[in-house]
Amino acid sequence: MAGNTPATLARYDIKVSGLDLSQLVGFQVRLFSKQFPGKELYARVVAAAGQRLIAEGSSPNDPVHNLVNHQTVILQFSYRGEQVSVRAKLQKSGGHCAFDLEETATPLSQRRFYRADLAYKVNLAPFPAAGLVSRRLDRLRWMETNAVNFSAGGALLNVPTILPDTVRLLINVEQDSFRFPALVLAKVCHGYQHDDLTCRAGVQFVTQEQANRMFSPYQMSELPQVLFSYTSSRREHLNRAIQESNTITNNRMDTGVEDENG
Questions:
Q1: For position 184, what pLDDT does the model report?
Q2: pLDDT tens-digit profile of 174-225?
Q3: In this structure, which topology does domain 16-110 adopt according to CATH?
Q4: 111 vs 109: CA distance, rounded Å
Q5: Which residues contact 59 (CB under 8 A, 6 or more apart)?
Q6: pTM for this structure?
Q7: Continuous H helices in the chain
Q8: Of 63, 64, 95, 155, which has the most beta carbons under 10 Å away?
């Protein structure tokens, strides 16, 4: 049963090849280098091609231009509302800095919420954000899939097609390991092609406090109130529960203790 799957702190990586890096052109990215320990640098992206970003400093004297060539740095930037971090190799040429990004990027949210390798069965119904009230819930098209990993803040899901970030989701997670609402609202943060048959979507669970900012009182009144029962307080309690479950599991593995029902 999925609820008995050991909880482990899992990485929630994004394939860089699935990102549209052209959206970063004209914006700043944060840069960290061992050459400048503890210092946060900034560079403005002027071009993007494939997994390469071309960037420059704000002035000729900017420390970015003094970076030693061919070193590996860490870039951080916002992509579709989510802060991500990725390692990159610096290639300097003609006064610009070219950064060849590695294959995977890591959402910074995973530092806040423990993500566990819990392959729960998930039922979801996508709908456009603008059609929240105009669509009746009983007419939504539901699909059955599974989670790759799960946290108090969101999940990585297997889906048949790439879901745009304009999509909202109604989600039911079939699990009995933790206290979690039977139905939650979620928004798509990113998506990419995983293999020939499967895509993946990183989704964020919407808390009651976030919903109050996203929707009008009228819109919220038209929806089942269970959708807004997931408060930020409940999210923090769930995060601690997943973390404690991870600690207990690791202790059992370290000491060789097996579960009585195992």
A1: 94
A2: 998 898 999 999 998 878 788 888 888 889 999 998 888 888 888 888 788 8
A3: Pnp Oxidase; Chain A (2.30.110)
A4: 5
A5: none
A6: 0.59
A7: 208-214, 217-221, 232-255
A8: 155
